[in-house]
Amino acid sequence: MIRRYVFGNPIETEAVLRKPKAEQWEGDEQVLAFGANQTGFTCKLEQEDIVYGLGENVRGINKRGWIYVSHCSDNPNHQEDTRSLYGAHNFLIVSGKRNLGIFVDTPEQVIFDVGYTRPELLSVSMDSGNYELYLIEEASAEAVVQEFRRLIGQSYLPPKWAFGYGQSRWSYRTSEEVRQVARRFRENHLPLDMIYLDIDYMERYKDFTIDRERFPDFELLVEELKEQKIHLVPIIDGGVKVEAGYDVYEEGVKNGYFCKDEDGENFTLGVWPGKCHYPDMLNDEARLWFGRKYRFLLDKGIDGFWNDMNEPAIFYSEKHLKKVFEQLEEYRGQNLDICSFFEFCGLVQGISNNEEDYRSFYHNYRGERIRHDRVHNLFGYYMTRSASEAFEELEPGRRILLFSRASYIGMHRYGGIWMGDNKSWWSHLKMNLQMLPSLNMCGFLYTGADLGGFGSDATRDLVLRWTALGIFMPLLRNHSADGTRRQEPYAFGEATEDFRGLIGLRYRLLPYLYSEFMKAALKNGMYARPLGFVWPEDPVARHTEDQLLIGESIMIAPVCEQNAIGRSVYLPEEMKLLRFRGTELTEERVLMRGLHFIETALDEVTIYLRKDHALPLAAGGETVEAVDWRKLALLRFGEAAAYELYDDDGMDSGVKLEGHLFPVQS
Amino acid sequence: MIRRYVFGNPIETEAVLRKPKAEQWEGDEQVLAFGANQTGFTCKLEQEDIVYGLGENVRGINKRGWIYVSHCSDNPNHQEDTRSLYGAHNFLIVSGKRNLGIFVDTPEQVIFDVGYTRPELLSVSMDSGNYELYLIEEASAEAVVQEFRRLIGQSYLPPKWAFGYGQSRWSYRTSEEVRQVARRFRENHLPLDMIYLDIDYMERYKDFTIDRERFPDFELLVEELKEQKIHLVPIIDGGVKVEAGYDVYEEGVKNGYFCKDEDGENFTLGVWPGKCHYPDMLNDEARLWFGRKYRFLLDKGIDGFWNDMNEPAIFYSEKHLKKVFEQLEEYRGQNLDICSFFEFCGLVQGISNNEEDYRSFYHNYRGERIRHDRVHNLFGYYMTRSASEAFEELEPGRRILLFSRASYIGMHRYGGIWMGDNKSWWSHLKMNLQMLPSLNMCGFLYTGADLGGFGSDATRDLVLRWTALGIFMPLLRNHSADGTRRQEPYAFGEATEDFRGLIGLRYRLLPYLYSEFMKAALKNGMYARPLGFVWPEDPVARHTEDQLLIGESIMIAPVCEQNAIGRSVYLPEEMKLLRFRGTELTEERVLMRGLHFIETALDEVTIYLRKDHALPLAAGGETVEAVDWRKLALLRFGEAAAYELYDDDGMDSGVKLEGHLFPVQS
Q1: What is the largest CA-CA distance in chain A?
Q2: What is the value of ipTM here, to two decimals?
Q3: Nearest CB to B563: which of A64, A80, A570?
């Protein structure tokens, strides 16, 4: 059951498509207690309650015991004490004796104190108290998710080829380097469907330009790769460089499409290219204009994009930076003690993504001038919507690969997200696993983390173990930052068989993973579920934080620690262990309910097949297109176990379940 | 068997007390391979080898798969990719079919690439190639440790009362606040033996001063607390404030006791008080002088100290800071793009602990002028030695509590260490567990981490779980930074029974823990052992990273994850589970070898008693002195299981095992 309440004068986010009639809040203290000032509410947590949700955030699947702040942030330090990442996903589920979904719909910052201050209390607060509140009560957490997802509309569908393996790096800097990546993959028979272009393909980091010195033959490159079934996926920045003669800049200025400061001047901030303006993505006209710019690349054969920096990130604002230079002067020649020295350093540390800057520019949203901080969490969402709406105009009915760094619920209809600039840390491998179901609850199905870690230096074993998890992520991409150790499968100076095996297994699993993804998308379901969704009565299952159900048939329990020879795996019921050494099935063994130590070598993947379920397996291939969907082996646990496959042409954006479900004959 | 080799002209560290005769290196490529330039060596790692050791460092008990740099560093960000912490502990053990101990004795920076670049290779390198190398081969890892520890001499013995619970905070700022802490502990019947004073007890952060505005009655405070059996433990900074009229400064200048820059001027750097000089701790005369200054506090009844900032930390050097201000100017008014903006920020980020600064001052060591970077890792060691040698002169034969932040092997004879400025992270709880045995191998027995975490905000459950681990650490201290959430046991606005129970259990365990500590210290043994030390043939035990043996009789398996209701525990052999709800034993149950899910509530501790072993339990008490060592219960697993207790007066620094071992009658 969904109830909707409106407090104050909320700004419309367009997160919810079909709004139920608002009810009058009658102060049901059993459910929620409101603070005196109406800028938030509290909800009592029972000891056994698990709090699911909040999408892209650090810590566990169970969010209890921390404060999270919904405030899209360009923060590459995903630490245990980080409160905000790139997305703002204000949906959570209190799951115990009752299952209560809570969605706080407002584009401004929201603070979720999930039993941090008081272990038995969930406390939600915000500045203004203008918000819409949705309460969803159902018999199970999964039913709550389904109701919520129905409310916010169907998740984005990527093209089928986007379920292949993607290789990325900040940056492959020349056409030749891109060709070399493709060559090394093909030579080593490493499956590959995408190569990503990071910021250096552009001319001086200008959106919708090509650096012709480094990519003189860009169009030819796209074509050559297409022949090899490899898609080139360029990055797009949220900021537009201030540069006389640059068409995007000139048009934006002329038409007043950029965000304005309080004096009505175009707001100037620094990101990659130096001084930039941000297009007013919230302004319908500006959004339409910016989206149509993607045509520059579509016309060159590009069919996939990733939108970056759209929290929006601000390295510095012109005004604030000037002020900092003045303030720094005051410390020159002083005797700086622990207090004044830390203040001095803080001046520089505080330049980027400064809250004062977010309060110093304006949008024209639905005809109204609104200060940015009041709609901050919509920027990335509306940038991605900008592209998506343009694609629908330019290439109607066709799926284009599109994912974003920043997001708000609602954006899940227009694109996926990647999990941001993580690090080559073992803890981030585990966090990748934990974030997936939390995002699924909020509608984000096409997602994954930078495999191997973006920042910091990876080790070979980390990339292997992360690949063994990554092959179950809808978005499977190995990506790393400038200046870090290279982490392509062939970068460790050794044989690539083990990488080939792991990635190869992804391609054997494709019919299953794609089916489960599409069923989840088209039925508002979960692609990846916490164990507690399926076995809510089993306390150990409910508190298992490093295993997941992927689709209907299988459970995974990846190795998340360095030097481990295996791990302890919890089976809430009897399951069949399927052990793969690379693409080859090497062991099938029924395991009892309970704890098992499962040895798993670096080149192995273990999958746990549920009773009375089946797993279809293709022969594999080096591209998604090469996988034969019609020749499938069926691994079963239980004589009668059957599997219903979903298949389609992989390109039609208006697809339904009907006509695409097929029984698999084994 | 120990072999010693000398390469180049190493600087003496006095880490090793009794040096075996140096042998000629004959290039045993089976053991070690030398690089062409003799500035390091490599050692082949077999797949099954575990690499133990390296003392205070991040990551697991098994150090494989990362690069560690021995370079004492004031780095509060203990992340997975951190390469250096506060200590430099150049001892490791390659343990597999053979057990090879390697000690690289040099005071300069050493790089340990433990299978990072190439998984099958340990590679050790340094700049100069001047070092002494000790190779120790024995039948077991534990025998290697014992041989090594014999070489470096007996570990520091703290007074018995230092095994009590200590409460700390940066800072308890007034006498009244300190009294209040004591009162709250006593009112709540929370055991307590120490309150720590952080930097604010001093007058403008000057060593060996008291801020008389905030502590007008310091001597009375010390006395009052002593009556309650509470010891006040002040911090001492490595740096001496530049301030005319301040006696320590004036004497140091007059006698030339400070480190000099290349022009022979006193080297000026900023730490807590602003501009400071560092006493030349390596100079015998200066060291003697600085050590005797502790008398200022000893005379006031103080009998415990912690030495800080002695990596040595450098917030900034006067010269470098000046240069940075000039360099910053060059960026003013520029159009800063991603490259130049990051450079600009890097200028400020690079001010502290700058390598150039470490190359710009000098010591007078053994009559020779030596640039700091060549002896960097000795500074904290020699500062602590300074205090220890003075104590022996001023209070001969008496144990004084002393521990340090920075250290090098050798310092373990003079004091303990705490594990530095960690964070309120669950991962740091686990790291605390992992660091303990690694430090024990290197001679550091009296150690522990800031319980609850120093930086960042703690939650109540984190502090409880960390306390449940902390009660097994020799150094048991709850400490937190200025600006973070308070984390004293009574700080969470709730009942304190659960904290009282956990800390109370420590006092019940004291006779056992103290016995095991003293036996380890006096027999060059391990207080805390990895499971692989005891069950080297059991691959699961060898790779267990979150359980430890504490002394001879027990294994611990603390809960290291938030919201967990328990954990999977591996038993390499049959053991008896002892469950304590606070101080009360609530369950005894024999468990089979293998994996078990053990539920453990926030107020519970589970201990695993080994077969044919026994655990003595006292009745407890609110101070160490109140614990009755003569009335012990004996928990046994096996009818014949006995326990030999160590006991002494807790104050004699020259104690031996003889005459202090007693059979426990049950």
Answers
A1: 82
A2: 0.97
A3: A64
